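Methyltransferase family protein
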Amino acid sequence: MKSTRALYINIHKLLIIPIVLGLMSLYDNFSIEAYIYLALHGTYSLLWFLKFYWFRDEGFRVQIPVLKGVFSIFLVMTGYYVAPFILISQQVKASPMFISVVLFFYIIGIFFHFVSDIQKYYTLKYKKGLITEGMFSRTRNPNYFGEIIMYLSLALFSKHWLPFVIIVSFTVFVFLKIMKQKDAFLSQFPEFEAYKKRSWLLFPKFF
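Tokens:
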């Protein structure tokens, strides 16, 4: 029995808001910090579904076995629930300056993640091939760069080391593997070597 890869990711995104609200109710924590976290992570999940509806990545249509989807995607992604659990259960408090830093990195991450995905979708829709302009001019994976920055901002909000370990692990064992596979695919294009020299795999190469 198989289902699309998107199913397990979408279930995870769908659960973000009810889980955070459930944690707030369970720990009787309706602080400004808890509501800000709800707004940040909840907004991301809503934007995810808008992206899925308007400019869906073709990779999400891939069919995979149900058990593989449950164990290698959904259960792995539950690690993203650790940050809100810590923040809410431990009644984490944050100064206005600290919150502004969290918001700064969150907004940067959201921008890179969604804007680059939009550029990729519409560029490939009308012109197949290597994308080397705009947000892809200095990094070959601006979407993953943005997503990682966004999740790091939520980890920062928790003021705990564990969410950082989870995100770094996810980056090394999941995102990095996907990015290397993408590089291997793009190497078929003759202009890839020149593009590779002026861009980095993940972080933007500004100099």
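Residues 31 and 91 are 8 Å apart (CA to CA).
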